[in-house]
Amino acid sequence: MMKNIKYSENNSSSIPYGRQWIDEDDIQAVVDVLRSDWITTGPKVAEFEQALADFVGAKETIAVSSGTAALHAAMYAIGIGPGDEVILPPMTFAATANAVVFQGGTPVFADVDPETLLIDPAQVEGKISPCTKAIIAVDYAGQPCDYDALRSIADKHNLFLVADACHSLGAIYKEKNVGTLADLTIFSFHPVKHITTGEGGIIITEDTHLAKKIRNFRNHGIEEDHNQRVLNDTWHYEIQDIGYNYRITDFQCALGISQLKKLPKWIARRQAIAKTYDYSFSEHPIIQPLHLKSFVLHSYHLYVVCLNLGKLKVDRGVVFKALRKMGIGVNVHYIPVYLHPFYRSTFSIDPGLCPIAERIYQRILSLPIFPHMSEKECQMVIESINKVSKKYYR
Ligand SMILES: *Cc1c(COP(=O)(O)O)cnc(C)c1O
């Protein structure tokens, strides 16, 4: 817990940009499972899957070992392979694009809207080719993408629409829950995300056929699950296609079930912190929050601001270091994915591919936001930013 935190110049105990919240209920839930007969592929996995299906209002949920595994399973299920192109934004964690590459597919980067950093549907249309098979929408920071526009593009060109919703658990788009807006939706349960299972992820869909493929993929490609084999009194199983071991344990799922109960309260807290930041930075000479659309409920995995570099004597790097030195765990989400050497060399990409993302990347900072963050910590972030802004103002 965070009781004894001191803020020192040496950065040893700064306010992080994100952090899990584990309490005694969570610990007890995990310990109970550790004392039971099933510690993996047991009843808690199905219970967690059902709890998430109920929360989102979706039919099929398949829990796996990470958000990355969930993305990989999604790319497998929709049949991505060599020669296939998948359109996605560069402003995401590399795992979104990596999952396309795992299957031998080609990631095609479409630029973002400068006000929200969400994939721009007009840019998506411009990137469609005869090889395009899917679009991956990334709900950057926790704000849902323009799903109406993306859906109509996907339908028009007969593409799958996949949502990397690792930032947006609990978010809403035009009265529809994230998790019901794409053909397949992915969440992550890494400790910085809205709820945690340590490591973990889930795929959500209405399509029972895709769900079945993903269940097999999670377990080496084995056709029948072990429960069915026990019921049918048989050892026989078949591997019809190659799969991985992407299973999640029962004690992780017990943690997830316990965490999920607190999610609505935690989202409300994230929104309250965001409101405090919004208020402090409205009309700020240096700090500009991202645009919030009126018809969404943002679930604030991240709180991202853009620096007005024209009014600063220094670049983002200097501001970043100054804030870190003051104990504020700012971060940068993200380096545009295709600028990483692997993507540049493998797909012959040069800088300039998505000029909006590259330009805004120079200006962004993620400020601390997590449910356990106190009002005092929030004020400390704001004061530190004001101090740094004043120091480097020109
Ligand atoms: C966290 C995250 C992932 C990967 O999830 P892991 O559980 O860490 O594997 C993928 N995409 C985005 C946008 C993320 O934020």
Q: Can you characterise this structure?
A:
The chain is α/β, with parallel strands linked by helices and 394 residues long. It has 14 helices and 13 strands. The chain has helices spanning 24-34, 43-56, 67-77, 95-102, 121-126, 147-157, 208-218, 226-232, 250-260, 263-281, 316-325, 341-346, 355-361, 375-392; strands spanning 60-64, 85-88, 106-109, 132-138, 160-164, 172-173, 176-177, 184-188, 201-205, 287-289, 296-297, 303-307, 364-367. The strands form 3 sheets. The chain has a 7-stranded mixed sheet, sandwiched between helices. Strand 4 (132-138), helix 6 (147-157) and strand 5 (160-164) form a beta-alpha-beta unit. Helix 1 (24-34) runs antiparallel to helix 9, helix 2 (43-56) runs parallel beside helix 9 (250-260) and helix 3 (67-77) packs across helix 7. The longest helix has 19 residues, at 263-281. The two termini are 40 Å apart. Pyridoxal-5'-phosphate binds next to helix 3 and helix 4.
Widest β-sheet, arrangement of strands? 1-9-8-5-4-2-3
- Total strands: 13
- Listing every helix as H and every strand as E from the N terminus to the C terminus, the arrangement reads HHEHEHEHEHEEEEEHHHHEEEHHHEH
Q: Helical residue percent?
A: 25-40%
Sheet-strand content, in percent, reads 5-15%
pLDDT < 50 stretches: 1-12
Instruction: List the ligand species.
Output: pyridoxal-5'-phosphate
Number of helices: 14
Kindly state the mean pLDDT as a whole number? 95
> Biggest β-sheet: count, sense, barrel?
7 strands, mixed
General form: globular
Distance between the first and last residues' Cα:
40 Å
**Which structural category do the helix and sheet elements fall into?**
alpha/beta
Q: What value does the Rg take, in angstroms? A: 22 Å
